[in-house]
Every structure is written in C-alpha cells, then in structure tokens.
Structures
1.
Amino acid sequence: MKNIQISPSILSADFSQLGTEIKRLEEGGADMIHVDVMDGHFVPNLTIGPEVIKNIRSYTKKVFDVHLMISPVDKYISEYAKAGADIITFHPEATENTQKTIDLIKNEGKKVGISLKPKTSIDVVKNFLNKIDLVLIMSVEPGFSGQKFMPEVLSKVKEIKKITKEKNIKIDIEIDGGINFDNCTLAKKAGANILVSGSTIFKENKGDLKKNIEILRKN
C-alpha cells in the first residue's frame, strides 16, 4: 500500500494572507498543496487564476496539486504550468479530446490527473489509466468547500484500485470533498492514497494544522 499523503486545499485558507497560510501548511507537514481553480462556468464559483499561483509559488517548494475546474481547459494549460503547477488535473467533460489534453500537460513537463465528478462514470477514464499519474475522485459536487461527503463514490475508488492492481498500473488515487477525521478511514480502505481536505485541516482543533494533518494521515 502506498504511503498516505495529505493535500490541504487552500480554498479554506485565509486568502488575505495566502503566502503565510502556505508556509504554515508546509511547517504542519502537508505533503502537497491542493489548488482549486474554478471559472464560474464549469462550476458555479470563481477562485484564483495563474497569476495568484505564480505569486504564491515562492512560498514553498511543496508540490502544487492544481485541480482545473474550467472549460474549455486546453487553452489554459500552458499558463498554469508556467505559473508553477506540478500536477495538473482536469475533467473529461471540459475537453473534446482527453488524449490531446493529456499530451498538452505532458508536453509542459507536468504530471497529469483526471478528475471524476460524483455522477461521472469511471468508464471515461479506464482507457487512460496507464497514461496518467493520478485519478481524482470527487466526493462532493465540485464548486464549493464545506459540503458533506458522499460515501457512494467509494465504489469508484475501489474499482479503480482493483483495475490498477490487476493491470499493474502505478497511479495515485486522490479523493476530495468533505474529508474529515471519520470518513478518511473509509477512503483509505477503499484505496485512496492522497486525501484532499480543507475545512477539517483549517478549522478543527482551533486550526492546529499540524495536528489535523497528522490525524488525517493516521486515522
């Protein structure tokens, strides 16, 4: 089993001092930094663009795990790559050609992730599992932080884990949405090895980031 990694979502951070928050996450033991990019079109919310990522890049050497919830996605990949993304994850619904989008990200020298919304079938990703680095399973509807975890998506995690094990495909399985101290155990048992968490990390135990990250890792 792969080591469990924690990717705190800065969507729950204090945006007035984002650089400081990222430093705190690094000191608290975060394995990577999860950056949610929303366009108000593909999902009903707006967050940050490449300029903000470029500006916060200097605050840490941790991997920037960038989740693009934007459509069309292809024309923005280069911008986010140059801004400092290390992993670029996209939704198959946001592109006309999944393989082309994978190639665009790889050509920028970045790792590739594909994200599945709760109602998106894993059939759309099955043929690409040996061509990407990560599958991100959304356990809430993308667009807002603080939503309740949807346990029904764990069947997707299990199925992807089963397929990759049978075919000996080395890939990370990430889960994002309502992850807390209780359901993180279920996610790990299902096969997820990267946990994205925002509200739990920033708000539980009076905002003790180190403690919250460690509980998520060990529970």
Note: The mean pLDDT is 95.
2.
Amino acid sequence: VMGFETGGTYDPGQYNIGKDGTKESGSGAVGLIQFTPATLKEWGVTSEQAANMTRMEQLKLVRKHLKRWTQPGDDFRDVYMSVFYPWALGKSSDTVLFEKGTKLTGKKYSQNEGLDLNGDGKITKEEASNKIKDYLLP
C-alpha cells in the first residue's frame, strides 16, 4: 500500500499530485499512506510536519492508522480501503465509492478518475482494489 500510495518512492514527503502534476491541485494528502490533512489534524500534526518526518517517524503514524481501522486477517482490499476510503471497510466489492458528477463524491471521483477501470463514471471498491492488486502482482 505504501509503495502504491507513494508511486514507488516510499517517500514520507510525497504529496498527492493533481492532474496538472502539482501538489497544489492534489487532494492535500501526504506521506507513506497519503494521510489527509484532517486525519493528521486529529493527531496534532500538520501536513508540513508529516512531510518532514523520517520514514521511521511516519511509520508510527501508519501503525496508529492501521490499528484504528484494520484487524488481523483483513485482506489487501480492506487494508487498502483503510487508507483510501475507510467508509468502504467490510462493504461488498461492487460498492460504489465515488461517482462522476455527483455532489457528494464527484470531486473525489475526479481526483481518482484513473481508478475507474471500465470508464462508467463510477469507482467501485473492486476497481480501486484492483489497482493495488496490479501493483502487488505485476
């Protein structure tokens, strides 16, 4: 998951990059598992502080996050969902996470449009998880 989320760099300072190739147009997420600013704020850490951590320092936050959302025996789909979209934990693989043009999830759809494997304007849990599977098993 960390390899996928950092584009293979495992860089704790890796920001989510938007369509124009800049962090300013991205989601604001940063780090080994792309922590959102809201999650970091809960822990009293700013995005800038997280970006300047060493891998070992940030791994403590990764562990804290995974302990919060996952349980022993979870498969890679739910481990990834704990990072990508915790709401989807335990939901079926055909659950729609984001849909193009909707008020509720349209922005998240555009930020993750590359995960819409069949181009139907919807990103399902399975589609998002398949990207991880493809990364793990090239």
Note: The longest strand covers residues 96-99.
